[in-house]
């Protein structure tokens, strides 16, 4: 796959994943929809690992890495699926746009990385101000949506912790082996969560968007998107890859508006704009500072 094609694939997959999550819960319980997605992706991934002869290791270090990955897969994604029943799907992408900032802050404490420069802290404050605008929106500030917001914030925190701790564990597994192993271990957790929260045997309604959304997310969200993401990471600069987190929330918001009748209030657009502005400063503030110094 060419790098431009892989880049476009990641943008499309990340932009459509939130509305896919919302659609998958239309007639299926969120935990069941998430579990089926992981099961299908795990089976297909295991076949791919076998065909490519990628080693799967289950020693202590690999299991530790899988365990931290489960914090993101089961914890973050499980909460995201639950939140998608309460908040506009596009906001899932907006909230997860905060993960690079949270990961950078956590990396200072957990990975002993250098302290962030002042402009990055300013970017974090700008993004927090954007969150405040979202939380104070009269359209969004309902008991149900507030609960969804809290779920998303916890999900983003778990996702960031997972990413940092997987890096800290440094099991040096092949990325596909890491993902497939973690997906396999996540399936029983989703099954137990579904059984405790619902437990009703589902009737698959192929006339609804739910089963099709599950299949789409399993094939594209959990496999093709993953392979494409790691492909572009090998060839592109991190700042270029980071542009994806600036583009996808805008697409996700409008996809929810066009295809799922989700409301776009002025405050939602303002809050999203502030969060995206914070990401721009966070990723590209250093380049701007260098250019200003060179000009001076």
Automatic annotation (TrEMBL):
Ranges for the EamA domain? 8-135, 148-283
Question: What does UniProt give as the signal peptide span?
Answer: none
Q: Name one cellular component (GO) term.
A: membrane
Name the membrane topology term: Multi-pass membrane protein
A Pfam family reported for this protein in Swiss-Prot or TrEMBL: EamA
Keywords for this entry? Membrane, Transmembrane, Transmembrane helix
> Is Endoplasmic reticulum found in the keyword set?
no
Cellular compartment(s): Membrane
For this protein, the parts annotated as crossing the membrane are: 34-53, 65-84, 90-111, 118-136, 148-166, 178-197, 212-233, 240-259, 271-288
Family statement drawn from the similarity comment of this UniProt entry: Belongs to the EamA transporter family.
PANTHER family from the entry? EAMA DOMAIN-CONTAINING PROTEIN (PTHR32322:SF2), INNER MEMBRANE TRANSPORTER (PTHR32322)
Annotated protein name in UniProt: EamA-like transporter family protein
Taxonomic source organism: Marinobacter zhejiangensis
